[in-house]
Hints:
Strand content: 15-25%
Radius of gyration: 25 Å
Number of helices: 13
Largest sheet: 16 strands, mixed
Number of strands: 18
Helix content: 25-40%
Shape: globular
Structural class: alpha/beta
Amino acid sequence: xxxxxxxxxxxxxxxxxxxxxxxxxxxxxxxxxxxxxxxxxxxxxxxxxxxxxxxxxxxxxxxxxxxxxxxxxxxxxxxxxxxxxxxxxxxxxxxxxxxxxxxxxxxxxxxxxxxxxxxxxxxxxxxxxxxxxxxxxxxxxxxxxxxxxxxxxxxxxxxxxxxxxxxxxxxxxxxxxxxxxxxxxxxxxxxxxxxxxxxxxxxxxxxxxxxxxxxxxxxxxxxxxxxxxxxxxxxxxxxxxxxxxxxxxxxxxxxxxxxxxxxxxxxxxxxxxxxxxxxxxxxxxxxxxxxxxxxxxxxxxxxxxxxxxxxxxxxxxxxxxxxxxxxxxxxxxxxxxxxxxxxxxxxxxxxxxxxxxxxxxxxxxxxxxxxxxxxxxxxxxxxxxxxxxxxxxxxxxxxxxxxxxxxx
Length: 408
């Protein structure tokens, strides 16, 4: 094909809206933002994908001391729209179709009052919230929220609010202390696909109450479990019986108290496990707990993510004892280590080098399809060298993603 024909073919592709829409459907948010700047046609075609993956941060602030109710909207962390509502009982009319194209929302609801307010005004606040939840609902939409219920709010209204939350196909809850305000035993359970635990807002006592109000949870994210008693959390989850029977993923970040990782071995077999040890000093201390945790879930894991970033290593790190991963399809290992008081050395936790060389890799990883490695490119002891990567592809049919690039 000559140059002219090639150019014409490319131009025809770039002008074909169906082809562009198919290409754009695979792009992430940062890339689709760039695409929208190319020209008006690309902006128009990319609009659907942009709306699908964007996050709208909705802040509803109800001032009980006056008639002022404010809705502040941020789109992908940038100011989008602010509305002051003169009539707090009507939210839908001023919003109209401002959010019609979007489907992913994060909702924060706050009530402000300088003095003690009547039950009637409190009821108005939750009536507004109830309206807003139903306005935000979309087929296949998602909602992230944290809730706080008060004693002088009617149970019927609270039931309606919970039903509204539960109607979303994906719900993430930032676990807080809403359970302390009222007796919720006669309220519906909150369907929660993901629980996010922030150590600054998570209660340190009566942990079992926090988890007793959720059902159908598949994933728990610990933003920093260093200051949270993981053993208490695990016992609280086990104590709910089958309410957490669908739990399949734990995502935990730690900066200290690594021995707490062993508590995760108390959970039933997980499918996905992410452990991040960041911004700390590493010696031999995390290894026994890491071994216990991973060994417990090895038989059911389909994805394992281990990350040691911005860590200082002060003693030589041992490898994990041989573990068989019967269902593991993807293994991720990221490291960025500074060696202090100890010589730089190989950090190959699963002894992949040896297993590849002697042909025994499939003994411990019978169905592994991909290995992803993130590490400084100038490291003296890479997790996998070029020869390893080549052999993984040729001999085992395993793809290797190294520092974001497909290798092998």
